[in-house]
Amino acid sequence: MAILNAATKEVQLKIVYYGPALCGKTTNLVQIHKRVQTAPGNKGRLVSLATNSDRTLFFDFLPIEAKTIKGFKTKFQLYTVPGQVIYNATRQLVLRGVDGVVFVADSQYSKMAENVESFQNLEENLRHVKLNLTEIPYVLQYNKRDLEGAAPVEYLEFLLNSREVQVPSFSATAHDCTGVFETLNAISRALLTKFINQGTPQYTS
Amino acid sequence: MITTLPPLNEADINEMDEALGEFLKQTDATTALIIDKGGFMITHKGDARRFDLTTIAALASGAYMANETIANLVHESKFNSVYQQGENYSMFVNCIDEYCLLVVIFASKLSVGAVKYFAAPTGEKIAEQLRLAQERDPDSGFDLSALNFADSESLFRKRV
């Protein structure tokens, strides 16, 4: 749930990166943390609650402040969920209070079933926290475009973005930061627009 | 509505800060925070330089929610607090209402009993203020449309 604090002139918003195991959710946050241009103090530490083998156990967390707009500080809290199937209860916890979602899909043909399953799981888990995808802004990121086994973007669009309202989608190679900031900016703008209008998500280019 | 917490104005924050300030005097605790269960910090009182409060808020809400889920799994219906005992500092997290938590960081030499005892009425005062904010006209006090976020340039830029 977004927090609007008129006393401190702050808007705080929560974005969750969702997707199947090993699709690159944590890599997105690592790249944002490494490469974002911010004023001193506007970027918090990247916290990873991970297993010994660096797989996300609970969540990754990165607080980050965008530029001040008309006197209001816009603070974003970026989270990832653990992608592995067994951590579903944890994913539900991380989704609590979510304002916007980035769904990270793995572009490899061999991962299509996992992408679809994870997307369905996102919808189920949002229902669990009394939300649904028609109410909250979300964008799609097709990651790992550099791999030889990557499916065409059109195929990913057909699988994941053929709903009544199509959302922005971005091709990405998160490990070299390609598409990472485009995705982050798109969800941030959609979220702020929604926050102002308090209505249907609107997407601006 | 995207929010479940009401927009908070200066009077709300002042009231909550006052409740936290009184709580710190009563208990001698180091820092007290009000956070929402999604992990945001709403306000805090006490020593903020020694700790990364933004991260503590995110982790404390996660820890509370995880423990609440575990409690439900073992058929425990009454769950409203988490206590972490440390060698230097301890932490107590207490439920305020459906959306918010009170997080208290205190020196481990202090009695957790006093912290627990005073946390209850402090939580009630804060919950009452949140109720008042909820009942008020949610748009009173400021005009969000003036922010016009949608016209802004890229919010985040990549360092080259």
Briefly, what is this?
Chain A has helices at 25-35, 88-95, 112-128, 153-160, 180-197, and strands at residues 3-5, 10-18, 47-50, 56-65, 73-80, 100-106, 138-143, 169-171. By secondary structure, chain A is of the alpha/beta class. Chain A has a single domain (3-197), classed as 3-Layer(aba) Sandwich (Rossmann fold).
Whole-number total of structural domains of chain B: 1
Order of helices and strands of chain B: HEEHEEEH
Instruction: Characterize the overall form of chain B.
Output: globular
Total beta strands of chain B: 5
Gross CATH architecture of chain B: 2-Layer Sandwich
Provide the low-confidence segments of chain B as ranges: 140-144
Oligomeric grouping of the chains = heterodimer
| Terminal CA distance of chain A | 24 Å
How many DSSP helices of chain A? 5
Model regions low in confidence, pLDDT < 50 over at least 5 residues of chain A: none
